[in-house]
Each structure stands twice: as structure tokens, then as C-alpha cells.
Design a protein that fits this description.
1427 residues; 10 domains; five-stranded antiparallel sheet; 50 strands
Length: 1427
């Protein structure tokens, strides 16, 4: 028996033709066709008109998705369910619309004689993207129809899969070892076509595989039944469309009411302007009753001068804006009116009339005319005044110019002299010949004389007043003599400054002559020689004092010796007293003084003395000497060189002092000081002693380091450093106070703050006092200081506590009272009086009756009873009552108090609080009223506490869940909604509402009858009066039916996608089956006796069988979809599935590229819905590339910061996963891009797209709390970006944690026509150490760049702007500066934002929306590259 050409025989095309299609006449209504499509039809009628029938085969046909429009067996058109759905959305009346008006007339048909094979029909359906292909004969008469579903059914996918699985299993078994003798026989017909085996085991194996094939076939039949159920659901959905139409009719009536009551005149006319409808406002404006307006041309109400213009404008109508015409009402005067006209179209797109909107603008015109007149008058006045100012300005400018030229030469000369005179320390003056005028005096005069230059100019002789009286006569005489001689005068004299100080001056005067040699002025120069005079006087005085001092001092020896020969130059008489030797002996023998040095000290002293003399150094020595009577004295000696004017050693001098008593006293003092030091170094009190001038620290104990936080050594080195630690706010006051007390010779006791180096602040108490010597004179100062920080903090805490209590009472509108029951005396705090309408600080009434007079009469008895019960039962006193204010207004008060008892149990006092609770009472009343309103709501509204107990249950909840209020309140939520409710979702919602205050999401709940429903639940956290969470308000909306419709819609979309991919699936199956068929033929024929080739061919068959089974499994899985709750989804797996399906079904001319981040985060979502999103996007990408191209799918993690969220209002700060689907297809224009997400908008041919794909994508992504962005360029492709919030994302980094590079003060020019983008970008840059300039268009940017081009480092340029775009602005700037650094910004989402021109160059491209990191990274890179 010969083997067939194909392993699987495809069905005959005549077998898949439906020869009994559903037909209807063109005059029938659309509603009749819809009813006909949704009824089961008996197949006992051949192709007929609505009134004709021919006998045919029997049987029933399921509800159809189409109806053919036929007249006398001539095919006129087709009407599908998709067409009916579009008509319903457009609001057309299906019962009044004829099929001939809305049917699809341009049909794709196929002649029956042109049939070739099933692939021909599939290619036609795929090429034209249609679901129905009518079959006609040679006379164009209708024969039948072929649908995509009938073709798929004819392919018998079930059988294909069964055969593939059978072959695969057989091959696996045939490779196992067997012991059955080889015996070749034909087991069955199918096995003979594939293999020739002689083994009995093969027959048994085939029987088992056939049984498995039958089982698989049954499963696939079950799948087909499920698809039929889907078709039934679609039929039910069509029935709902009828209900939708009725609802739309109600909405139309509602808008009719709005039409009638709008304040603007509204008219509807036909194309000729004949009024068809008019509302009440139009009737009022035109002064004609509504019913008389109908049928009249609208032009009769237009003034004659505007009528012709109006008619011509309507004839050329494209899209008229609002314009003004003069309206002539039937009665009354004409008035100006604002008119807007819009064309109206019928369902076929033909214009059917006009709609008119009229408004009276008389008042607006009058105001506009008044403003115009006022503006014109103001402009005329401005022009006149401007001309006058121009003339005055020209005259003034000429005068200024002449004056400037004259002054310039003089100023140059004066500047040279002035710079010299102003920078010299001597004073310079110039006066007239008679000294009556001072022409010049420099600032040094004020410094030396202590008088102002102005006083000398006003009184040129005032300098004489400052001359010392003893020098005045001599000086004037000297000046007079020199003046007579006509020569220079120089004199030394004293002056007395205004502060009483005396200064010595050397003054010189000289005449200034003119060109003729005549004296014209007198000039002078003087310098201060006070210091020189003082030095000379001090030197003379010093010599005299030294001699008297040396001769009269007895305690110290003063001596001077020659450096050259060592002779004694001077020694005072104290030498004889201390050394016990005569001065004469020292004159005669200068070394005799060494003989008295103690033998133990002599060698050391002589050696040090010789060394110091040789080196010319200062030496200090202590040693002992032995007097002639044997007494030992301690000597302290200092030896030093005396230099001449050339700095050379001329003499050696020395001072020797008897320190015997001091040594003894120091020994005793050391012992006393040791005791004192032990005490002071172990106390926390600072003990401090300083010299009387405060420049030396005599003693400071270690407590100073603890309190001041500074080392004692720092105080010794700088005795004033303790002042640096005083708090800046206390320093001036404390130092002034200490100085004031010291001047009086008194001590001071002060409290102030000190700031330790670590910033800690300490409060101290310091007692400083003078310490006097035996003569009562000030010797030094002492101080004792203690740290009182803890005491001060306690005082501050007490004051703050009292202040907080006062503020709390004021904020809470509360007062405190204390009632002494023994004395019947009650004390009110200041805040109680206003609670009773009395002034703040009012006293409590003296008696209980007086107090009760402030209480509402109806509340006095309950108040008294509550008070007595609290006293008798020893419980807390509490009551709410009304207070009557003096103006008779009522206010609710709440009082609480506690009763205190003595040892005998008798009440002695009550302390309590009173607060105003009027607001709470009003809110309770409102809540009571609102509770009644809640019962009207259709939503289920209830309140639960944190123990899941129900506190409130409205009637909407009773209707939705079936539980009455009596049954629900007080019960546990789990008991009401069944324990099987998703506890995990409830727990997640509870955590969110406690953290954020609100939560919204979908939950599955169960009603009392056991029915499971889906609700959209909104939770809100409720708080008590103290602001603490107390309960949760829950509002549930039943969305069960909505979710079912969404599920049906998505299933329909999936089936549509499968239909779209059917051609690719068939092509791929044939590619899979071909190697199987060829390999089987080779095994049977050519290689039957070549066992070595069998494993390779069997492997080919096995691999292709597995590949085919996987393809069918993917298609079936996508067709069924998954129904369930949202789970954690890994996007990379979904992308892999979509890529695999696309590679099998798309044209081979389309290449695929995937870029998926390795550490991609996960999202929470519905797997089936996200699968649908990706499928819709890749199908759209395929359709956009009919000639092939590159389809790229990428996924990455992204953190959206605050800057990005400001640029994209749909985004929020957080972590997202970004899925990008990019194609290189035909792209879209901006007009199409604005409408792609509109329902039913499509650019595809009729019958090839519903226009719902992208609107479905947008709806699904928004339901997942994400958003979609799209960018496209014509002929360059489109890019869709899906943003989905990630789950289990890392902690949000703060702005400081982001790795951003700060600037170095560079100036950045920001150019963008969006103010928000300018503001956000400016904030980012200035917060990162950049300077900014902003411009809103290209012209403004060029002006700013021309002004600041030397300072501007980078220009941030938006490419799409009005007036002048970015590319033109960049070219202009590059002409001004070829090295200008530009970053181009674009919202198109593609880097090809610059025109392809060498004249336009940018260093970087930044795509919107961008993050702060993107901006700063690009900016830093451009700046670094430039450097």
C-alpha cells in the first residue's frame, strides 16, 4: 500500500463550508438581526431571503456572530456582533435603524471554483484580518460561508496532537531491548504507513497507544465544549446590550432636561438653518414662544448687516470658533450676542444639521468700549508727556557732557595729590595769603590735633586755641619773624587736644608763589613728635631714678662690670650689708666676691658664670654664701649683658638678692599649700585666684576642667580664656557686672551660663571677691564657682510644666476648680469664667445656689443629684449639662471631679475640671442625622472595632449580605462573612489602614445564603475624642457582575488573539509535521534495512513531536486563561512565554530582542491579565511592521523619585518594574497618539480590529496601580513603557543617600516652556550647588545667553517650544559661541530628537520624564568632558 503525501490528511474545503448561513433582507431592522443571531437556527433552510426558503439538510445551528444581507440570493453585505456593539456605544436606536444603512458593504468573497486547499482560505482570512469569508458561485450568487472557527475545527487539532503523542511514545518503546522473535507483519493501517515491524509486541503497543489517543481526544472535545460555553456567554452579553440601550435612552431624557434649563440659548437646525428644536432660554432671547420658533429660519433673527456674513461662514464651515453677531428679536431692540455653532452628523457620517449656542453679551461689550476709550486717552497723555521729557533730556545731556570734560582734567590732577596727602601720617594744609581761608587740609589733622577738618575750614584761626599757653608766644614770634623774611619757618611746640592730652609737634610753614614769584598761598606740614619727646624725657628720668634706686635699696645688690677687662663700673652699698665686705675691696679686686661663696656651690657658680660671660647670655643663679661671722645666707642672682647701639656687648650687669627669709617662708608655705591643694583638688567647686589686673592665673583647681570643659593649663597660658566660655547672651552683662564691683572694691555673686567646647551648656553660680594684704590694699582676686545646672533644669522643667498645663487648658477649652467643702469656698482657674460666658479670671459664685443659677433650669436637679451621689457613694463625680450665658445662649459643658475625705471619712474637698463639649454634642447630633442618610445608600456601610466586632450595620449591608441589623451588630466578622474568607487579605488591609489611615481593594465575601460575591471595599480609620484609633468604617460595593463582564471581555480578547495567530499556528504545525512525515518515509523505504540510521531519524521525529505538543499546549493554555486572585508574579517568565508564542506565530521577517535585568523584582498582579497586556502590545507591534523589523522587549528595576513624580502626575514615589515594548514599524502621528487609548479607536482596516486592545491594556495597568507611557515617531517606530509597582522592594533611599554629583557653582541656563519643569529642575540644581537662569522659549534663551555667555557652563534645552524651537535656538547659540555646551531634552521618549544636521550639535540627550540622578549625571558628564 502506498504512503500518503502527508502523515495527517487535511480536510476538504467543501467540508468546512457552511451552506446554511444566517441571512436577512436589507430592509430589516438591526434589532431583528440581533434577535436572529442570538437564536438557535434549524438548518432545514438553504440560503434564502427573509421570505424565501428551500429544503435542505436537517439540524440545529448555535447562535451566530454574523448575519448576511441577501436579496434574491445576491450578497449585499454582512452585519456582525462587533458592528452591533459599535452602534450601541454610539447610542443609535437599533429598533429604528435599517440594516442597509449600517452593514459592511465592501466584502471580501471567494468563488467556489477558486478553491485550492485550506491554506488558501487561511491566508485570505489572515491577510485581510477578517473572521468570515462568504463563498459565491461564478454568477456572484451566495453559496455559503467559511468562518475562522470552522477552519480551526476542521484542522482537528485534537487528532494532530493525538497522532504526535502516539508516535513519540512508540519511538520511546521501540528503543527498549526485546526478547520477542522478529516477525514482520502489518498490525494496523496507521502503523503500516509509518513503520514495518514484525514483532508481536508492536501490535500490543499500538493497541495501548490507540486507547491513550482516545482519552486525549475526549479531553480536547471537553475543551471544545468549554469554547461553546464561551459562545453562549457572548450571546447573553448581547442580550445585556439591549438593556444598555434602554439605560442610554433614560440618560438621553435626562440630558433633555439639562437642555431645557440651561441659562444659554440652545437651538438645533437642519442644514438649511430651519429651527428644529429650541430651549426656553432661546425663546426668551428671541422673544418668541418655543413652539412658534420651530420651523422658522434662524436667519430672520440675525440683523441684516450680519446675515450674509453668517451664511457664507456656514457654507465654508470647518470648525468655527465663537464669534459675535447682532440678534434682532421679534420684540425689543437688537443686541450683540456670542454665537457658537457645531455641525451634527448622522450615523453614516453625513451632516444632518447644526447646533447653536447663543448668549447676550451686551454688558460685556459696553465694559469693553469704556475700557478702550480710557486706554486711548491714557496713551495720548503718555505720548505728549514723553515728547516733553525728550526735549528736556537732550538739553540736560549736552550740559552734563561739557561739564564732565572740564572736570575730568582737574580731577586727574587732584587725584594724584589727594592720594599722596591722604596716605601720609603728617598733616598738610594750604591757606590764603592772609590765612583767612583754608583751601585744603588732609585727614591726618583730625588724628593729630583731635579736631575736625570742618572746624578749621569754618574758623581758620581755631588751631591757635590748641597751642600750649607756654609755647604760644614763642611760636607766634618765630612765625612772624620768618614771615617778614619771606622764608620758611620750622618750630617745635605742644598742643592740647580736646580730650586734654598733650602732643609735641614739629610744624613747618612755607610760601607758595605764583608764576610772577609773588606769594599766593601759604602751605604747611606738621608731624607728631610726641613719642620722641617722651622717649628723651623718659631716658633722663630713668637715669636719675636708677641712681637713687641703687643707692637706697638695701635688699638687692646692683653691679655693673666692663665686658673687656672685667673691672667693676658700679656697685651699690647693699653689697657691704649682704656680703659683709666693703665696696672698695670689690673695686680693687673684682673677683673677691667669689671668696664668700659656699664651698659646695663655688665651682658650679663659677663655671656657669664663665660660660654665660663667654656666650653673652642671661643667667639666673641661686646659691649660698658664708659671711665673715660664719652665718649662711641664700642669694638669688641674675646676670645679663648690656649692649651698645651697634648691638655689641659693652657691660655686664647683675642683681643679687638675699632670699634667706623667703626660703624659710617658702618651706613653711609649701606645707600649708599642700593641705590647701589636697582640699581644692578633691572638691567639685572651682577655686580660682588671679592677679589684681587679671593677667596672671595664680591658682586654679581641677574642678575648672570639669565645669568649663577646658584644661587648667589653657587658663594659665591665657588668663582671660575663661571669658570665652561664657554664653554669648550672658558675656557682656557678667563682665560689666564684675568690672563694676571691682571698681568699688566689692565682691560679686552671679549666676550665668558657660558653653563647653563640645557645645554642652552648664549653669554656674560664681562668687568673686578681692583679697587684700595687711595694709588693706588689693593684693589679688579670688573666686569660688559651683555647677548649678541640675537646679536650673529643675526650675526650667517646673516652669515649662506650668506653661504646658496652661496651654493645654487653653487648647482644650478646659478649666480647673477646687471646692473646699469645709469652708464652702470654691476656687476657679482663669479659664473657667469664659466657659460660663463670664470674663477671664472671674471668681466662682460664693454659694452653690449662685453657681446653679449659671446652669440651665432643667439640668440643675441632675447636677445636684450627681454631686450628692458622688459624695455619698465615694465615686467619681461626672456630669454633662447646659450653661446659660448672660446673652441667653446655651453651651454644653462636661464636668468631672474627685472627692477627698479626712481620716474620719468626712468629705473635705472636691477637685475637678470643666470643659466645653458643645462641638462634640453638635457632632453627635450630626452623626445621628447622617446615620439615617447612610441607610438610604445602596452600598454596604458598617463599622467594626479592632476585635472584629460589628458596631454599626446599615440597610445597604442588609440588602447586600442578607443579615439584618439585629443579627449583625455585636457579632464577629468571621461569623458573618464565613470563616473561609481570605484571612490574609483582611490582615493586610488591617495593617495598611492602621499605618496609613485608609485602604482600598477587592475582597471575596459570602452572603447569608452562601453566595460568594466580589466587593470593592474601602476602609477608613476612625478616632476617638483623644485622637486614638477606636474603629474602622468600611464601605463595600458589589462588583460581582462587573468582574464577570470583565472576565468575559478578556476571554473574548484572548480568542480574538488566537484567531489573529491562527495562520502562524498552522504554518508552524506544518513545519513541525514535515520532518516527521519525511523521516517516517525514510524509515519505511530507503533506510528500512539500515539500522544505523534509525536513531538519528527517530530523534528527529521525537523532537518535532515534542515541539508540536508544546505549541498546542501553549495555545490551549492561553485560550483558557487562569482565573484567580492576584499573586506574586515574576515578569521575566511572562515575557519568555510571550516571546516563544510570538516566534512561532509571527512572520520570520520580525526579529526579537530581549533585555531583562538579572535581579528583576516581582509584582503583585493577575497573571492572565498581565499576559493579555503583553500579548496585545506585541500583536500591535507586529501589525506596525508588515514588512518586518525588530521587536524589543525589556524589563528593568526603577526607583521613581520626587522630581520624576512631579513631571509625571500619574506616578508616585517608589520602586517600579518598567516593561518596554519597542518596534521599528511605521510609527504614529501626534494626532493618532492622543487617541490610541480611546475605546473603539483603531487605525486598522474594517473588520480587522475592535479598537479595544490598548484601552484594555490601560485599564488593566491602572487596576494594578501602574501607568503607561508611549512615544512614537512616524516611520521610526513606537515605544510603550509599562510601569508596575514592585513588591518586597528595598528601603527607599533618601536624597542624601543617592549617588549624585554636586556642582562647583556653575551657571546653568534652563530653557523649557513648561513652568513646572523649570521650577523642579531649578530646585534640583540649586540644591546641588549649581546656579541657574530660566527661559520659557528660544528667543528669551538667546537673549539671556548673549548677556551671560561667559558665565554659562551648560544650556539645558527643551526641543519642542513655541515661537522658536530648541533646534533653531541651538544653531543660533553655536553661531555666537561654537563651543557652547548643550543638553537636549525631549518628551518624545527617543534619542533622535535633533535634526540630522551638522549645524545642530548637542553634547547629551535627556529624555523626559527624567529623575534627579539622570539630570545630575548627564550634567556632570558634560562639564567633565568640556574640562
Amino acid at each position: 500500500m502506498q504512503l500518503n503525501d502527508q502523515l495527517i490528511a487535511l480536510p476538504n474545503l467543501h467540508q468546512v463550508i457552511d451552506r446554511y448561513p444566517l441571512t436577512i433582507s436589507p430592509d430589516s431592522q438591526v434589532l431583528d438581526a440581533l434577535i436572529l443571531m442570538n437564536q438557535e437556527q434549524n438548518n432545514d433552510l438553504e440560503i434564502v431571503n427573509a421570505s424565501e426558503s428551500l429544503p435542505g439538510s436537517k439540524g440545529k445551528q448555535k447562535a451566530s456572530s454574523y448575519v448576511l444581507v441577501v436579496e434574491e440570493r445576491q450578497l449585499l453585505g454582512i452585519l456582525t456582533l462587533r458592528d452591533v456593539l459599535k452602534l450601541t456605544v454610539l447610542g443609535m436606536n437599533l429598533s429604528k435603524t435599517r440594516i442597509a444603512e449600517v452593514m459592511t458593504q465592501q466584502l471580501i468573497t471567494l468563488e467556489e471554483s477558486a478553491f485550492q486547499d485550506i491554506s488558501t482560505v487561511l491566508s485570505i482570512l489572515q491577510h485581510h484580518r477578517i473572521d468570515h469569508l462568504p463563498i459565491v458561485d461564478d454568477g456572484e450568487k451566495l453559496v455559503g460561508i467559511v468562518t475562522e472557527s470552522s477552519l480551526l475545527q476542521g484542522l482537528n487539532v485534537v487528532k494532530i496532537v493525538g497522532i504526535l503523542d502516539s508516535i513519540q511514545q512508540y519511538l520511546q518503546e521501540s528503543q527498549k531491548p526485546t526478547t520477542t522473535p522478529a516477525k514482520c507483519q502489518y498490525a494496523n493501517q496507521q502503523t503500516k504507513e509509518v513503520y514495518c515491524e514484525n514483532d508481536y509486541f508492536l501490535h500490543k503497543l499500538v493497541v495501548e497507544q490507540v486507547a491513550k489517543e482516545i482519552k486525549i481526544n475526549e479531553e480536547l472535545h471537553q475543551t471544545i465544549e468549554e469554547l461553546k460555553i464561551v459562545e453562549e456567554e457572548i450571546r447573553q452579553q448581547n442580550e445585556r446590550l439591549v438593556i444598555v440601550y434602554e439605560i442610554a435612552e433614560l440618560e438621553r431624557r435626562r440630558y433633555q432636561n439639562l437642555f431645557e434649563f440651561t441659562p444659554y440659548g440652545y437651538l438645533v437646525t437642519d442644514k438649511l438653518g430651519i429651527i428644529q428644536e429650541a430651549n426656553h432660554a432661546a425663546s426668551t432671547l428671541l422673544s418668541v414662544h418655543q413652539k412658534y420658533l420651530v420651523g422658522k429660519p434662524i436667519t430672520v433673527f440675525i440683523a441684516d448687516e450680519a446675515r450674509h456674513t453668517l451664511i457664507s461662514d456656514l457654507a465654508d464651515f470647518q470648525q468655527l470658533p465663537e464669534w459675535e453677531v447682532c440678534i434682532q428679536p421679534r420684540q425689543g431692540t437688537p443686541f450683540p450676542a456670542g454665537v457658537r455653532v457645531a455641525a451634527m452628523y448622522d450615523p453614516q457620517g453625513q451632516q444632518s444639521g447644526w447646533s447653536w449656542l447663543l448668549s447676550n453679551i451686551s454688558e460685556r461689550k459696553q465694559a469693553k468700549e469704556s475700557l478702550s476709550r480710557a486706554t486711548q486717552e491714557l496713551e495720548e497723555r503718555v505720548v505728549k508727556r514723553t515728547k516733553e521729557l525728550v526735549v528736556v533730556n537732550q538739553t540736560l545731556q549736552q550740559e552734563i557732557k561739557e561739564r564732565h570734560q572740564t572736570e575730568a582734567a582737574l580731577r586727574k590732577s587732584e587725584d594724584i595729590f589727594r592720594q599722596f596727602a591722604e596716605n601720609i601720617e603728617a598733616y598738610i594744609w594750604i591757606c590764603s595769603q592772609d590765612c583767612s581761608n583754608i583751601f585744603y587740609i588732609n585727614q591726618a589733622y583730625e588724628k593729630i590735633w583731635g579736631r575736625s577738618c570742618q572746624s578749621l575750614r569754618e574758623n581758620p584761626q581755631s588751631w591757635i586755641e590748641a597751642i600750649h599757653p607756654e609755647d604760644l608766644d614763642h611760636m607766634m614770634l618765630e612765625l612772624e619773624e620768618q614771615a617778614q623774611k619771606g622764608g620758611n619757618a620750622s618750630v617745635e611746640h605742644r598742643i592740647i587736644r580736646p580730650d586734654g592730652s598733650i602732643r609735641w609737634l614739629l610744624s613747618r610753614r612755607f610760601p607758595i608763589k605764583n608764576e610772577q614769584g609773588q606769594i599766593q598761598y601759604f602751605g604747611g606740614i606738621g608731624e607728631d613728635i610726641t613719642e620722641r619727646k617722651q622717649t628723651e624725657a623718659a631716658l633722663r628720668k630713668s637715669e636719675e631714678i636708677f641712681r637713687q634706686f641703687g643707692e637706697n635699696i638695701q635688699a638687692q645688690i646692683i653691679w655693673i662690670k666692663s665686658y673687656k677687662n672685667g673691672e667693676t663700673v658700679y656697685v651699690n652699698p647693699a653689697y657691704e650689708k649682704i656680703w659683709g665686705r666693703s665696696c672698695q675691696s670689690l673695686w680693687e679686686n673684682p673677683q673677691s666676691w667669689t671668696e664668700s661663696i659656699h664651698p659646695e656651690d663655688r665651682d658650679r657658680i663659677l663655671a656657669e658664670t664663665r660660660r654665660n660671660l663667654q656666650n653673652g647670655e642671661l643667667s639666673t643663679l641661686e646659691y649660698r654664701l658664708v659671711q665673715s661671722d660664719g652665718a649662711i645666707r641664700w642669694i638669688f642672682a641674675r646676670c645679663f649683658p648690656i649692649l651698645n647701639e651697634q648691638g655689641q656687648i659693652q657691660y655686664f650687669g647683675g642683681i643679687a638678692e638675699d632670699i634667706t627669709e623667703r626660703q624659710l617662708a617658702e618651706a613653711a608655705l609649701k606645707k600649708s599649700e599642700e593641705k590647701f591643694r589636697h582640699f581644692t583638688e578633691n572638691t567639685d567647686t572651682v577655686i580660682w585666684m588671679a592677679s589684681k589686673d587679671g593677667k596672671e592665673t595664680l591658682y586654679i583647681n581641677p574642678a575648672y576642667e570639669k565645669i568649663w570643659g577646658r584644661s587648667c593649663q589653657s587658663l594659665r597660658e591665657n588668663p582671660q580664656s575663661w571669658m570665652e566660655g561664657i554664653h554669648p547672651e550672658d558675656r557682656d552683662y557678667i563682665l560689666g557686672k564684675i568690672e563694676e564691683r571691682h571698681q568699688k572694691g566689692e565682691g560679686a555673686s552671679l549666676e550665668y551660663r558657660v558653653v563647653q567646647p563640645n557645645g554642652a551648656i552648664r549653669w554656674i553660680w560664681s562668687r568673686c571677691f578681692p583679697i587684700k594684704n595687711e595694709q588693706g590694699e588689693l593684693d589679688y582676686y579670688g573666686s569660688i564657682t559651683e555647677d548649678i545646672t541640675e537646679r536650673k533644669l529643675a526650675e526650667v522643667f517646673r516652669r515649662e510644666s506650668e506653661a504646658r498645663l496652661t496651654l493645654a487648658l487653653e487648647a482644650a477649652n478646659m478649666g480647673i476648680w477646687d471646692w473646699n467643702l469645709t469652708t464652702n469656698n470654691c476656687i476657679w482657674s482663669d479659664h473657667i469664667g469664659p466657659l460660663y460666658g463670664l470674663p477671664k479670671g472671674s471668681l466662682c459664685p460664693s454659694s452653690l445656689q449662685g453657681f446653679l443659677n449659671l446652669v440651665h433650669p432643667e439640668d440643675t436637679e441632675p447636677f445636684t443629684q450627681a454631686l450628692n451621689r458622688a459624695i455619698e457613694e465615694k465615686i467619681e463625680f461626672g456630669i454633662e449639662y447646659r450653661a446659660v450665658w448672660p446673652d441667653d445662649s446655651l453651651h454644653w459643658l462636661g464636668t468631672r471631679g474627685k472627692v477627698y475625705y479626712d481620716e474620719q471619712g468626712q468629705p473635705i474637698r472636691i477637685i475637678g475640671t470643666t470643659r466645653d463639649i458643645s462641638d462634640r454634642k453638635e457632632k453627635e447630633q450630626k452623626i445621628y442625622e447622617q446615620a439615617a442618610l447612610l441607610d438610604i445608600a445602596t452600598d454596604a456601610i458598617f463599622v467594626r472595632d479592632f476585635q472584629t466586632e460589628i458596631l454599626f450595620w446599615n440597610q445597604g449591608a442588609e440588602r447586600m449580605y442578607g443579615w439584618t441589623k439585629h443579627e449583625a451588630v455585636g457579632r464577629n466578622l468571621q461569623d458573618i462573612f464565613c470563616p473561609n474568607t481570605s484571612i490574609q487579605h483582611e490582615a493586610t488591609a488591617l495593617k495598611t489602614v492602621v499605618k496609613l489611615g485608609t485602604w482600598q481593594g477587592e475582597l471575596r465575601k459570602q452572603t447569608k445564603s452562601g453566595q460568594e460575591i466580589i466587593v470593592e471595599s474601602r476602609w477608613t480609620l476612625m478616632f476617638d475624642a483623644d485622637g486614638q484609633p477606636k474603629s474602622i468604617l468600611i464601605v463595600d460595593t458589589d462588583i460581582t457582575e462587573k468582574k464577570q463582564l470583565e472576565e468575559q471581555f478578556l476571554r473574548t480578547q484572548r480568542l480574538e488573539s488566537i484567531g489573529t495567530l491562527a495562520g502562524g499556528i498552522a504554518h508552524d504545525l506544518n513545519n513541525i509535521l514535515t520532518p516527521i512525515s519525511v523521516a517516517a518515509q525514510l524509515l519505511k523505504g530507503r533506510f528500512a534495512k539500515d539500522p544505523a540510521r534509525h536513531p538519528h531519524l527517530l530523534t528527529i521525529i521525537e523532537n518535532n513531536a515534542v515541539r508540536g505538543a508544546a505549541l498546542v499546549k501553549q495555545v490551549l493554555s492561553f485560550a483558557r486563561g487562569l482565573k484567580g486572585e492576584r499573586t506574586i508574579v515574576q515578569i521575566k517568565h511572562l515575557i519568555a512565554e510571550i516571546i516563544q508564542i510570538a516566534k512561532h506565530t509571527f512572520s520570520k521577517s520580525i526579529e526579537f530582542n530581549t533585555q531583562i535585568s538579572e535581579d528583576l523584582w516581582t509584582v503583585s498582579g493577575d497573571t492572565t491579565q498581565l499576559h493579555q497586556v503583553l500579548m496585545n502590545l506585541v500583536i500591535n507591534a507586529r501589525d506596525a511592521m508588515p514588512a518586518g523589523g525588530l521587536l524589543t522587549i525589556s524589563a528593568e528595576n526603577m526607583f521613581i523619585d520626587e522630581a520624576y513624580s512631579r513631571l509625571n502626575f500619574e506616578s508616585k514615589v517608589g520602586h517600579y518594574i518598567v516593561i518596554t515594548v519597542k518596534d521599528t514599524g511605521m510609527g504614529m502621528s501626534p494626532e493618532i497618539l492622543d487617541r490610541i487609548f480611546d475605546p473603539f479607536f483603531t487605525t486598522k482596516e474594517i473588520g480587522t480590529g475592535t479598537g479595544l486592545g490598548l484601552s484594555t491594556v490601560l485599564g488593566i495597568i491602572k487596576s494594578h496601580n501602574g501607568f503607561v507611557t508611549v512615544s512614537s515617531q512616524v516611520n521610526k517606530g513606537s515605544t510603550f513603557k509599562i510601569f508596575l509597582p514592585s513588591v518586597e522592594s528595598p528601603q527607599l533611599p533618601s536624597l542624601e543617600q543617592l549617588e549624585i554629583e554636586s556642582g562647583q557653582g556653575e551657571l546653568i541656563l534652563i530653557v523649557d516652556d513648561e513652568p513646572q519643569i523649570c521650577d523642579v529642575t531649578k530646585i534640583i540644581l540649586e540644591n546641588n550647588n549649581y546656579q541657574t537662569l530660566t527661559a520659557s522659549n528660544g528667543i528669551e534663551a538667546i537673549a539671556l545667553y548673549a548677556q551671560h555667555k561667559q558665565q554659562i557652563s551648560v544650556v539645558l534645552m527643551d526641543m519642542m517650544m513655541p515661537e522658536m524651537d530648541g533646534a533653531t535656538a541651538i544653531r543660533t547659540m553655536q553661531k555666537m559661541n561654537p563651543d557652547v555646551q548643550v543638553i537636549a531634552c525631549s518628551g518624545l521618549g527617543t534619542i533622535e530628537v535633533l535634526p540630522e544636521s551638522a549645524e545642530t550639535k548637542a553634547q547629551a540627550v535627556l529624555l523626559k520624564p527624567y529623575t534627579a540622578n539622570d539630570l545630575l549625571r548627564n550634567l556632570s558628564q558634560v562639564i567633565r568632558n568640556r574640562e
